[in-house]
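quick one
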Amino acid sequence: MPARTILVINCGSSSIKFALVNPAQAQFALSGLAERLGSPDAQVHWQQGASKQHLALPAADHRAALAQLLPLVQSAAGGQLHGIGHRVVHGGEHFTAACRLDPASLSVIRATAPLAPLHNPANLLGIEAAFKLFPDLPQVAVFDTAFHQTLPEHAYRYALPEALYREHGVRRYGFHGTSHRFVSQRAAELSGLAVAASSWLVAHLGNGCSTCAVVNGQSRDTSMGLTPLEGVVMGTRSGDVDPNLHSHLARTLGWSLEQIETLLNNNSGLLGLSGLSNDMRSLEQAREQGHPGATLAIEVFCYRLAKSLAAMSCALPQLDGLIFTGGIGENSPLIRSKTVAHLRLFNLALDQQANARTIAGLAGPIQAAGHPRVLVVPTNEERQIALDSLALLN
Ligand code: AMP
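structure w/ adenosine monophosphate:
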């Protein structure tokens, strides 16, 4: 294997998603997930070629889990590991692109933690563990927010007093930038258009969901804001609610800030609406059997998603296509069909056969003949992080 392999690490508070990526190869040499870290049930699963394995790591923390993976990574990389690329959720206004990790950039990421208290500290755990275990390897941070630093001020400012922005960084940042960038570039390639002269609406629909307007390779607006809670309905996050909901719940029910945050981030969205699950596959099955909560959750999800895409169109000079990506966007003909049905004023319509067959990792157009382009494009954030890391290290 040539010396262009990057270990990509995405750390959550109790998990590490990892992949060994050589951009010259379509498949990852090694990929896996360490989960429930810090608990007695901590374990790691990985896949190398066709072989799938797992190992219990009772009470392992991030560093112990990475230490277990070290020999595996080194043997899979054949001694040719070029560097480590870390997904970092929030780069604030400081990071407009990937950066090499050193004491100066690390201290800026630490200083950004108040903007992403759930995410950046977890990302830092992975970075610190990786520095201890791989002291000789260069490390790179790739930020979810960086792609959206091209938003014009009228798209990123809230209608709040200026001091909150100037002194406290209260503005819209946007997230999922690595995915929106990757799929909009792939969509241009698949359509024979130049990235620098193309305009896209993107719906990234995973457990977290967001929309984005991408013009000439730059993000011009996106649905997530100061935090990943703003915007469309997600697995367990509410997306947009009336901001007065907070004071209403505090006043009428006596709820604390923590209770309201838990409600909106963990108990709402598809899970809250359906009363059943945050998982779209389960909801589609329950809807088939007539479950009213699942049916309603799917209707609200698609209607609000279509509203968000319509709003994003304000940032486009023309529409070269609508892109669906993420676990739901890549695999759910039902959600794509229901969402597009709300966008008839854009003249969007699907070829139902193409829609039905473009699942499970397939990419391609699914619009009906004579209608604007609608594409399914599988996202690959790990690959984009590896490409960004290599571009910086070379
Ligand atoms: P992600 O976070 O990108 O892995 O996406 C997770 C979401 O994708 C979950 O809601 C899954 O239920 C959903 N998903 C995955 N496969 C399918 C499928 N075949 N049909 C509908 N939703 C799916």
